[in-house]
C-alpha cells in the first residue's frame, strides 16, 4: 500500500460507495477513464439529458470521485485519482484482513 495516501475514513468510504452504487455514475466514470471530457460530449455519448447528467455529475463531484474545470463557457470533468487510490487501498486492506481465520470458540 502507498504510505503517502491517508487512510480512508468510514464516512468517506460510505460517500464513495454510495456514489458508485448508481449504474449511470459508473458509466460516467468509464467515460472519463481516458481523460477529461466536456459535459456536452458526456451528454451525447451517454445519451442522457442535461439535467439528469448534471445531477449525477454533482453527486460524483461531491463524493470526490471527479473534478470539474471551467474553460470559457464549457465545463470539463475528469477523474480524481487520489479518491480512486484511497478506495483501492481501502478495499485492498479489507481483502487482506478477511483472510484471517476465526479465533477458536470457547
Question: What would you say this structure looks like, in words?
Answer:
With 106 residues, this protein is α+β, with helices and mostly antiparallel strands. 56% of the residues lie in helices and 13% in strands. It is elongated, with a radius of gyration of 17 Å. The protein has a 3-stranded antiparallel beta sheet. The protein has one domain: Arc Repressor Mutant, subunit A, CATH 1.10.10.10. The model has no long low-confidence stretch (mean pLDDT 90). A hairpin with a 2-residue loop joins strand 2 and strand 3 (74-79). The longest helix is centred in the last third of the chain and has 17 residues, at 81-97. The protein has helices spanning 10-20, 23-31, 39-46, 50-63, 81-97; strands at residues 37-38, 66-71, 74-79. The protein is built from 5 helices and 3 strands.
Amino acid at each position: 500500500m502507498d504510505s503517502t495516501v491517508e487512510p480512508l475514513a468510514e464516512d468517506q468510504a460510505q460517500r464513495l460507495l454510495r456514489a458508485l452504487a448508481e449504474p449511470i455514475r459508473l458509466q460516467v466514470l468509464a467515460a472519463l477513464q481516458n481523460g477529461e471530457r466536456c459535459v456536452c460530449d458526456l451528454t451525447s455519448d451517454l445519451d442522457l439529458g442535461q439535467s439528469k447528467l448534471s445531477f449525477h455529475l454533482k453527486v460524483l463531484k461531491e463524493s470526490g470521485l471527479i473534478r470539474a474545470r471551467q474553460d470559457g463557457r464549457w465545463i470539463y470533468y475528469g477523474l480524481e485519482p487520489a479518491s480512486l487510490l484511497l478506495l483501492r487501498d481501502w478495499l485492498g486492506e479489507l481483502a487482506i484482513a478477511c483472510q484471517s481465520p476465526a479465533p477458536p470458540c470457547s
